[in-house]
Amino acid sequence: AQRVTQPEKLLSVFKGAPVELKCNYSYSGSPELFWYVQYSRQRLQLLLRHISRESIKGFTADLNKGETSFHLKKPFAQEEDSAMYYCALSPSGSARQLTFGSGTQLTVLP
Amino acid sequence: GAVVSQHPSRVICKSGTSVKIECRSLDFQATTMFWYRQFPKQSLMLMATSNEGSKATYEQGVEKDKFLINHASLTLSTLTVTSAHPEDSSFYICSARDMTTGELFFGEGSRLTVL
Q1: Alpha carbon B43 to chain centroid distance?
Q2: Which of A47, B11, B63, B107 lies at a 20 to 30 A Cα distance from B83?
Q3: Is the CA virtual torsion A46, A49, A54, A59 positive or negative?
Q4: Helix, coil or strand: residue B106
Q5: Chain A CB contacts of B4 below 8 Å
Q6: Which residue of A has its CA nearest to B39?
Q7: pLDDT tens track, chain B, 115 positions
């Protein structure tokens, strides 16, 4: 069975500082990895996925198969980045059946 | 962009009654929808995968007779919590997979409180 671990429940950084939200996973096959974000009082929305290798809102995430990690990074945090971030895994061919991590609440301080 | 609508957003019911929550894809068709449950300050736990025109697939530990799922059309899946008890109080979230693009979109969630 797959598992996603986000070790930090809460993370606070100052505006302009770099931020890294950690995510580790366990899965025997080749998964798809995602980061979802939930802003206050809004629904969950996709931030980025590993297969597209894109940067969204300044965030990037690289899949490290050796370390089974998919950490989310941004070099200069902004106050509007404050939100709940969930790392998620989808087994290949599962039609996006997601297993979520426990989430990290990011607060960017002014 | 694509929107998934859940209704009701909040519902309060008495213990022993049944509650139905709807999940609609408003501008796309979805052969697959997912139902999640989220406890306070915890992650989303997948309850079941809803497949249009066929029976839902439930995750281990989820009672299929307790949580009835119907996916009768390409734009609507319903979750019925039968004979609700206070321990069923939770936040229920659905997601729908666009059958054309494969993209996944989430509803805003439904908060159920059972008295």
Answers
A1: 15
A2: B107
A3: positive
A4: strand
A5: 43
A6: A102
A7: 679 999 999 999 999 999 999 999 999 999 999 999 998 878 899 999 998 888 899 999 999 999 999 998 999 999 999 999 999 999 999 999 998 888 899 999 999 999 9
